[in-house]
Amino acid sequence: MSRRLPSLNAVKAFEAAARHENFTKAAVELHVTQGAVSQQVKALEAELGLRLFNRERQRLVLTDAGRQYLAVVRDALDRLADGTRRLLDRRSSGALTVTTSPSFAAKWLVHRLGRFAATHPEIDLRVSASLHHVDFVREDVDLAIRHGDGNWPGLEVVRLCTEELFPVCSPRLLQGRHALKRPADLARHVLLHQTGRSGWAKWLEAAGVEGIDLSRGPVLSESSMAIDAAVDGHGVALARTALAAFDLLAGRLVRPFGPSLPVSFAYWIVGPKSTAVLPKIKAFREWLIAEAADDVRRVAALERAGRAAQRR
């Protein structure tokens, strides 16, 4: 059903004039001329077929109809202002839905959520772990953290971190009869493969190691599974920088030796361009980047300390 509504400018002019009991003061508030306010009110009276003011010498006096209409107008404007304020508040607070891969969620994101909540209690963060690349137009998702080459046309794409690929294992494997000291020692240990066995083949070639049986060791579907198996001492995994950082810094994993291989893919923060500047999205994106940069600094310091200890 269509609504019969007066001009919003006329309604605002009437409310301001009623409050100030003066067209001139209402005009100053609304940044228009006194004549414009007077004409707006006259047009509103003509549309309603009612006189809203009695014009006295020094001031305006509301008629009975004017007082009744003012109550309705003020309630409507208050509701409109409140609804607008709440809608704008949602830009800097409220729910923020983020999707990422199960491995990134498990090994990188979930351990840090308390820090984000502490600095941004106004944001209700919701994390969905899935390998599915969402359609931001059709799905109720604000941001995605994706692993790839960064080529997602039409979206706002920001690199979270660059990565390398390197062996990791439990510190326990650096001790004992078959301690890992050099790449050739992998012949005596279980290799943990992720998805296929090509990763280890490339790394061993780069390390100049031959004679390692690549058919040994389980093949795991998720990077997080391989890392967790390495933490538990079940073998040696190839890990990427971002996913291994938390366990490296906690001392649950070590890098027994090099080399580290560059990788073509990285983690990216992806979302619609139209919402990239919203305060809550900007806040989360900046927090992610700061966390990743802090990881890089701390892991680099850990490696320097390890090399210094080896020289002593």
Any overview of this molecule?
The protein has 312 residues and is of the alpha/beta class. The protein has ten helices and twelve strands. The strands form three sheets. A five-stranded mixed β-sheet has the order 4-3-5-12-6. A five-stranded mixed β-sheet has the order 9-8-10-7-11, sandwiched between helices. The radius of gyration is 32 Å and the shape is rod-shaped. The termini are far apart.
Give the strand line-up of the largest sheet: 4-3-5-12-6
Largest sheet: 5 strands, mixed
Unreliable parts = none
H and E order: HHHEEHEHHEEEEEHEHEHEEH
CATH class assignment of the largest domain: Alpha Beta
Number of domains: 3
What spatial form do the alpha-carbon principal axes imply? rod-shaped
Strand percent estimate: 15-25%
Separate helix tally? 10
